[in-house]
Fold:
Amino acid sequence: MNYEELAISIIHYLINHFIKILKTTSRTSMKKTNLINHYKNLLYMVFSQEKPCIHKTYYFLAKYVEKTIEGKKYYAQREARTLELIPVFRKRLGEELYLLKLHGAESIISRTSFLLAGINKLEINPDLDYILEYLDKINKILLRPVPPKAYDSRLLELLSPGSKIGVILGFSYTWLVTNVLIEELNKKSVEIELITLKERLEDNISRETIKRYIGSKDFRIREITLKDLHSLGNNYDILIILNYYCIFKILDDILENNDKEQLNDKYLLVFNPMHTPIGETLGNTPIVMTSKNIKENLRKKWARGDSNPRPPGYQPGAPPG
Structure:
């Protein structure tokens, strides 16, 4: 799968993802004609772009769906269930981490970040069955050594007191584990800043909704635009990225050879691409990996024969050489 094929495959996946949201939320109430109209509208948003762009497609489709009756119902269900599960997850995860520490286990932060990556999956059912499955599997997941695709989590382990971390928040339900990871990082005496996007999506934790998740805890909160992402890493020792809008933006930059300041060891992407085109390319496992190493993994895969990466300065339609 080459650069263009990967981008198109991800966009195709996103269309199916958002159509599935509309279908599963109203299996009996939606008329077939309405679903077809939704599908036409989603396709129009894709084809109205000059060239395939993953992060813009994701944002436009998500904004469209959240304004529909079906989308509002879907996101309301997810948030209500998330708020219900936060104390359950905190208690269970806290108990498991306590037992691990009691038995002298190492890499607690790496194990927790891998758990967070697993939960940060794009496609979750409205009833959060996937999250409940993770609740049942917490012990088994935490007992496993950190796999290669999450090896960059060691960067969090190596942070020294006084280090500064930024966390770009994403889906509401990721707070189930994010809050526990932050508690573990706090024990290392690092400075933590929570970051939200001005480009608000209904299912993401925003500056307006953040108090519902953090309660009375005192966190530094910063609001940025997507344009700030390129230079944001200069403000932190590590920038943890959970937000898919940002993840897709970085992936677009990689595919377009638009590296800029992003592709370094400060940008730590934490997400689960399993059963998506990204997973087929990078490996079907949760990922805790720097943007630089994601690019290197893609290059190695293409170098093995899937396709050759574009040369620096590549322009669509330009002659080879």
Notes: DSSP finds 13 helices and six strands in the chain. Residues 69-102 form the longest helix (34 residues). Residues 307-321 have pLDDT under 50 and may be disordered.
